Amino acid sequence: MSVFRRVRDITAANLNERLEQSQDPVRLIDQFLATTRDDIVEAEKLVQQSTAHMRQLKQQVDQAESMKNKREEQALLALKAGEDHLAKLALQEKIIYEEKLEQYSELLDTTKRSLIDLESQLNDLKMEYQTVYNKRQYYAARMETLRLQQRMNQRMDGYGSGQDVPKMFNRLEDRISDWELEAQSLRDLRRMGQQYLDQASETVSGILEKEMARLKQKLNNSGKE
């Protein structure tokens, strides 16, 4: 397992430091998770292989112990029967199986210790993976929040802030007031024009009346002559 940790590009020890320097923490965490996931898969294979090897060693130990006991019983039977030669042969094989038992027992104990250590480190890797994965979810949510905030800020920049709304209506109010003043001025001008026409018409009528009176007076004067 220590071999796995040495060849990893990103480890838990330097992940935090690299996160502080990274502009894309989610991508960096994904790289870490991918490497850790590969380590977990390889470690699980080693656990399976070690477990299978331990079973084989256990079979050898059991077989050696069984044969040792069997040869000892055979030696006892041979001695009871007065067959010293057969007893010695049985004891010789017993010694061979005792040596085999000792050797395979040592191998079995070593494999058990290695397997326990391997399983412990595998559990550590899984815990490490789960912890970083949870952090990944948190950072991904933060990055998504930041992305949405940036989009909202861009949209608000395009439309302006709410503080400009009163100014917009003030400008509209000014324009409408200008239009109303223009309309009022036009009405006043029309009214003044009509009054002028009325006054002009009265003046012309007065002149006409005076002219008619003058002509009538002239005719009267002509008739008297």
From TrEMBL:
This is PspA/IM30 family protein. Keywords: Coiled coil. Pfam families: PspA_IM30. PANTHER family: MEMBRANE-ASSOCIATED PROTEIN VIPP1, CHLOROPLASTIC, PHAGE SHOCK PROTEIN A. Belongs to the PspA/Vipp/IM30 family. It comes from Paenibacillus chibensis. The keyword Coiled coil applies. The lineage of its organism: Bacteria, Bacillati, Bacillota, Bacilli, Bacillales. It comes from the Bacteria. Residues 40-74, 101-135 form a coiled coil.
